[in-house]
Design goal:
Shape: elongated
Strand content: 5-15%
Distance between the termini: 39 Å
Number of strands: 4
Radius of gyration: 19 Å
Order of helices and strands: HEEHHEEH
Strand order of the largest sheet: 1-2-3-4
Number of helices: 4
Helix content: 55-70%
Largest sheet: 4 strands, antiparallel
Number of domains: 1
Length: about 160
């Protein structure tokens, strides 16, 4: 199961980096402002804000928050090692997406958003991976809670 987490981590991290670089290169060589691929619109936006603008003036706090969340997620991984099949992909997606965004902010002072949603919101693969990871994590927590409720008490009282 750790290999599943690793694949999700690498997919989130590398997918975000690859798509951002591809869009930037394509737009730079064609002079276009966006790429229309059917229902999907790709653009290039340097996002200097964090958490949809929530922490715009505190980039150090944002990095510390991401690192802290990473440590908490790793602790969850260690404590629930094999209890839920959804936990490993959830943690891989969350940590991969967060790592990609944090490293971009450290390297360039911004992360690159390329996926346009509803004509007014632009996001990136890392953000999508984190959101999917959170959904998987909530499902894993619900699964664990349900399993514990169905199992009943582990020890009977005398």
């Amino acid at each position: 199961m750790v290999s599943v987490a690793f694949v999700c981590f690498v997919g989130a991290y590398d997918g975000n980096e690859w798509l951002a670089n591809w869009v930037q290169g394509r737009l730079a060589t064609t002079g276009e402002t966006q790429i229309q691929a059917g229902w999907l619109t790709l653009v290039y936006v340097r996002n200097r804000g964090t958490a949809d603008g929530l922490l715009n003036h505190w980039p150090t706090a944002a990095v510390a928050l991401c690192v802290g969340l990473g440590v908490v997620l790793l602790a969850l991984l260690a404590s629930w090692s094999r209890e839920s099949g959804l936990l490993f992909p959830a943690l891989g997606l969350i940590l991969g997406g967060a790592t990609s965004n944090v490293l971009d902010r450290i390297r360039w002072g911004y992360d690159v958003d390329v996926v346009q949603i509803n004509h007014d919101h632009v996001t990136n693969v890392a953000d999508i991976a984190v959101a999917l990871g959170i959904i998987f994590l909530l499902a894993a927590l619900a699964q664990l809670r349900l399993e514990k409720a169905c199992a009943g008490p582990h020890k009977q009282r005398h």
